[in-house]
Amino acid sequence: MIETSQLTKRYGDHLAVDDLSFRVEPGRVTGFLGPNGAGKSTTMRLITGLDRPTSGTATVNGRRYADAAVPMHELGVLLDAKAADPARSARNHLRALAAAGGVPRRRVEEVLDLVGLTDVADRPLGGFSLGMGQRLGIATALLGDPQTVMLDEPVNGLDVDGIQWIRRLLTDLAAEGRTVLLSSHLMSELELVAEHLVVIGRGRILADTSMADFLSGADEHRTLVRSPEADRLARMLAADGVVVSSAHDGEFEVRGVEAVAVGRLAAAHGIELHQLATRDTSLEEAYLRLTQDAVSYAGHSTGHDSGADPTSGATSGPSADTTTTALTGSPA
Ligand SMILES: Nc1ncnc2c1ncn2[C@@H]1O[C@H](COP(=O)(O)OP(=O)(O)OP(=O)(O)O)[C@@H](O)[C@H]1O
Prior knowledge:
The protein is an alpha/beta fold. The chain has helices spanning 40-48, 71-74, 90-101, 106-114, 130-142, 160-175, 187-193, 211-217, 230-239, 259-268, 283-291, 319-323, and strands spanning 2-11, 14-24, 29-33, 55-60, 75-78, 148-152, 179-183, 196-201, 204-210, 222-226, 243-244, 251-255, 275-279. Adenosine-5'-triphosphate (ATP) is lined by residues 11, 14, 16, 34, 36-42.
């Protein structure tokens, strides 16, 4: 378990972390997300004791990480996967860390195997690819067989196999009853793996909730409608006060009513339907809606500012949000 209480970090005039209180519970993967500069890395550094809080506390499994009897067994951390001597081999790097942390040598072979680096374990780290370096960082985090694991952007540089592998690994760690905190800008990935979310913006908590509640809170029953009489059906729905996007190429999107109501209306007026598809809100859409006001470094597209984080990988934005026209009208 990780717990922060009124955790605050000030750099000069800048409040990087502002009165953060949250708990990361064991037995599930918790996603930690927020726009660039929101304070995620600072919070993680405060949890590990790499940085000192201005005020407030952060504990790991009930005590400050610096006070842990066997720190590597309490918390495994991936903060900067490149922090290793390039002339050293992966095996020697891990052996040195194991010796310093009081971890038996055989554990080095176990973690090399676990992250799939056994075959390249004697090559110098300088020749490692980004993905191999990332796997080594994860091996380092798991070396002490820790109760709690905290990984900053672990998916960076991993190929499709690597991404699937880490998804399974994190889910397995949580199923074993460990605490797993994971920061990532890859929303589609987080959506698959995280059961709980802590979202921060400008150093403050924006949401601390289950993934299911986060998504359903943003859900508006969006339905895609395709019909050869799309214009006519859209006008009828708009006349009933329903929010619809303008019909284009025989399709439009409806918000706030269930698909069945659209189907009934079409049937009642003899309108042929070619598609009626309910769309779930994605984590990316729900997240962008929540963090629109908390983006510190917003980029500008040529047309308009989408509010999306320019370097996050979450760049595609909710297209329906930017194109939807509210054609609301009074009931006929
Ligand atoms: N050592 C430092 N000195 C001064 N300011 C800092 C320092 N470390 C972080 N900051 C500032 O604190 C804020 C939070 O930074 P942090 O790196 O924690 O954000 P983040 O959420 O991890 O961002 P990203 O998603 O870009 O990694 C930023 O405005 C950053 O410039």
